[in-house]
Structures are given as structure tokens and as C-alpha cells.
Amino acid sequence: MLQSQLFAKTTKQAPKDEKSVNAQFLIRAGFVDKLAAGIYTYLPFGLCVFKKIEKIIEEEIEAIGGQRILMPCLHPRDKWETTGRWQVSEMFKLKGRSEKEYGLGWTHEEIITPLLKKFIFSYKELPCYVYQIQTKFRDEPRAKSGLLRGREFIMKDLYSFHSEQKDLDNYYEKVKNAYFKIFKRCGIGDETYLTLASGGTFSKYSHEFQTITDAGEDIIYICENCGLAINKEIKQEHSKCPECGKAKFRQEKAIEVGNIFKLGIKYSEPFNFKFKDKNGQEKLVVMGCYGAGLDRLMGAVVEVHNDKQGITWPKEIAPCQVHLIQIEDNQKLNKVAGKLYKDLKKNNIEVLYDERKDKSPGEKFAEADLIGIPYRIVVSERTIKKNSIEIKERKEKQSKLVKIKDLPQFLNEKLKTKNKKRQRKI
Ligand code: ATP
Ligand code: MG
To answer: If you take atom 1 of ligand 1, which residue's CA is the nearest one?
Structure first.
């Protein structure tokens, strides 16, 4: 991508009412634009990161059997009356021209349960795992944390359907593992804790995945011994860790990036969703649901990975891997940098090429730091004389001279090692 062609430019200042670090940097660096509180547009780079997060989620959820669908956002009132949730205050409501009432989906149990009921009749068709990545609407009272809390946002919601509780229990553990893989690949594995929370229907608790950040709206207590966390809302029940029995906790602010629930028959009962078991007896389907917000995940990554200058994207979800910067303008340099740009692309390395003639080196470096691409390569008269370029990792201070001919291999090795490691783990 040529930087001169990007319509979404960086800016020095974010809107005054945007206090959160993620919104400040994402807006200033040209990843998102704010339409209103809690409502954002993804600009090309933002969408690029978003799609990478989406791909990771898709891979990990499909690895545990998830089948992707896409349900509507516009929901007729009667589905929500069935469960008594039409009155929930987060729901945006509207009327069609014939006075028919609709709600904008803030979750999808009321849609997926009657949907699956149309297809599943026998124990032979269970278990079944269905997910979507789709827009949700919530009339949040406070939407002041940038991408962490939108009024319109995108969620991955997975629903599982089982013939018995034991099968749900097993699958629930698989989802936990898949979530850890997702957060690790997105670069927040070390900061994200499995957390006991309220909200289980047929189990005492639900589990949240909480990422430690000052921008977080929750307080969690992390067991110093085993690392299990407990949400403050249920902490008074636990003077000792329910996992290991120790009583030493550390308090942190955190944001919930995922939440998984054992629903049991909470939704199959009102929708009368039954299957025939081996003996031909009718039973209610046992369900689980598993949510994770993509925007919130992106916002949390930025809250965790930044410094004074800007964002420091983790490699797997960075908009590009290399920011190629040409700091002088002459024919020879144009030729060398242009060829390097093509060669890197040929090697499947994603590159943003700053070939702009009207920016000083200082301006280019400051923008590169703000955007936060993992590797910065500078092509200049001085290094070209040595047939080399200067390469610097975004998070490091020191740059390194690398011979131009060795560069694709140098980069591929860095990027490949990471991929190999990941594959081994999965
Ligand atoms: P919170 O307690 O933070 O309001 P929640 O418990 O209402 O979240 P869930 O209904 O469990 O959220 O939704 C599943 C996931 O969707 C959350 O774990 C989070 O990642 C994401 N999410 C929820 N609300 C929002 C929002 N307003 N903006 C962005 N992402 C959200
Ligand atoms: Mg939740």
C-alpha cells in the first residue's frame, strides 16, 4: 500500500471528548472515525486489523467445530416476548410502517433457538455448534471508552446444543481453550485472565476473560498462586480461591473481552426446543453460549500495546508487517525503495510504503510510531551506499543495518518462527 494514496490521514489531535487511550490513538492514527458516542467507522487500516482478528476467531472457533452463519439484526417483537426479554433497557426498539414492532439485536439466543429447532429433532443431530460474527446494538448508558464500549459493535457469538449436561461441560472446556488461543494470537494472552463471574443459569458461575488495563470497568481479584481470577461482584463469596484454596489475591482493573455461559434449558424451554433421545423420549436441548467482542478486543489490544508515541501492534494483527520509509527523494533511492517494495510484496510481506515527497523524515517517523507497524525500514542515501537498509522493531530503540539482498529472508525468518511456534501449540 502506498501511503500517499491513503485517504484516511493521521491527525495530531483526537476529538476532545475522547478520553480513552484506544480511541485517542486509533482516531489519530487513522484506524477509526467517530460518528457519535459509541459509534465508529472502520477506516482502511482499522478494517485491516479487524479482518485479521476476525480470521483468528474464525480459525479457532472452526477448529472446535463451529459452523458459521449470519443472523439478522432486525428482530420481530414476538421472539423477545417468548423469553420475557423485550423489556430489557439496552434494546433499541423501532416500529415499521404497519406499526409492527422490532428490536435491534443485542444478543441472539431468541433467534438461534427457534432457528435450530427447525433443523434438529434427534439425538443423532447433536451436539451442534453454530456461530456468527455480526453487529449488535445496545443502548449503553455510558459509551465513553472508545472501542471498548460501543452502542453498535461486532460480536462473535457461538451457541452450542447438546443432548445432556455432561456433553455441554466437555465442550465448555474446549471453548475456554479456544478463547485462550484467540487472545494469545491477538497479543493479549499474558494480560488476560479466566475469571469467575455471576450469570450462570444451570451452573453457579459464568466465566469471563478479563484483560488487565487501567481502562477497564471491572475489578478482578487474581489468585497469586494459581492465576484464576474472581470478579468483584462475587468476591465476597470467596475468601479463598475456589481452584487452589489459597487466600492471596491481587486486585486489578480489567475489561471483559469474552464471556461464556452454560445456559442449560433457559432458552430451549420457552421455545419448546426438544429432541428425541435413544429411547424415543422427548427432552429439552441443553445449550451453552459464548461471546467475544471484536471491537472491544481491538480496543483492549491498543490499551495494552502502546507507548507515548502511539500503538505497538502485536505482529499477527498489525495492519501491515513492514513500514517502508524513504526519507530522501532522488532517482536512485526511488528505484531502490520501489524495488524493495515490490520484492517484499512478492515474498508475501505486507508493506506500507511511505513514498511521500512532502513530509520531513521527522514527520514520517512520528507517523510511523503512531500507526505502530511492527517493523520500520528506512531507505536513505547513507545506507544505500552500503547496499543496506536500516530496520527497527517498533518496540525497540536500536535499529540494525541489514543488506538489501538479505532482507526478505531476514523478515521471513522472523515472521515464520512466530507462525511455526503457533502451529505447534495448536
Ligand atoms: P459488559 O459487562 O462489559 O457490559 P456484557 O457482560 O454485557 O459486557 P456480554 O453480553 O457477555 O457482555 O457480551 C459478550 C461480549 O461482547 C463481551 O464479553 C464483550 O467482549 C462484548 N461486548 C459487550 N458489550 C459490548 C459493548 N457495548 N461494546 C463492545 N463490546 C461489547
Ligand atoms: Mg458479560
So the answer is: 256
| 294/304 Cα distance (integer angstroms) | 15
CA of residue 183 to ligand 2 center, whole Å: 16
From atom 19 of ligand 1, which residue's Cα is the shortest distance away? 293
- Buried b / exposed e across 135-166, counting CB within 10 Å, b at 16+? ebbbebeebebbbbbbbbbbbbbbbbbbbeee
**CA-nearest residue, atom 6 of ligand 1:** 259
Q: How many other C-beta atoms lie within 10 A of the C-beta of residue 423? A: 8
Neighbours of ion ligand 2 (CB under 5 A): 259
For ligand 2, the distance from its centroid to the CA atom of residue 259, given in whole angstroms, is 5
289 lines ligand 1 (CB under 6 A): no
Tell whether ligand 1 has an atom less than 6 A from the beta carbon of residue 137: no
- How does pLDDT run across 390-420, given as a tens digit for each residue? 999 999 999 999 999 999 889 988 887 554 4
pLDDT for residue 202 is more than 80 = no
Nearest Cα to Cα of residue 382 among 423, 328, 340, 419: 328
- Is the separation of the CB atoms in 314 and 186 below 8 Å? yes
Q: Which domains does the chain have, with CATH numbers?
A: 3-307 (3.30.930.10), 322-414 (3.40.50.800)
Contacts of 90 (CB under 8 A, 6+ apart): 106, 138, 139, 140
Our answer on whether the CB atom of 295 is closer than 6 Å to any ligand 1 atom is: yes
Q: Of the residues 296, 298, 303, which should be mutated to test ligand 1's pocket, given the most ligand atoms within 8 Å of the CB?
A: 296
244 contacts: CB under 8 Å, gap ≥ 6: 223, 225, 226, 228
As a whole number of angstroms, the distance between CA 73 and CA 137 comes to 8
Q: What is the number of the ligand 1 atom nearest to the C-alpha of 208?
A: 18
Q: What pTM value is reported for the model? A: 0.96
399-403/375-379 β-pairing: unpaired
**If we measure between CA atoms, which residue out of 208, 210, 213 comes closest to residue 197?**
208
Take atom 25 of ligand 1 and give the residue whose Cα is closest: 149
pLDDT tens by residue, 7-60:
999 998 888 889 999 999 999 999 999 999 999 999 999 999 999 999 999 999
Give the closest residue to 115 by CA, choosing from 299, 317, 285: 285
The answer to whether residues 315 and 374 touch, using CB atoms and an 8 Å cutoff, is yes
Residues 76-97: what's their mean pLDDT?
Answer: 97
Nearest ligand (C-alpha, residue 258)? 1
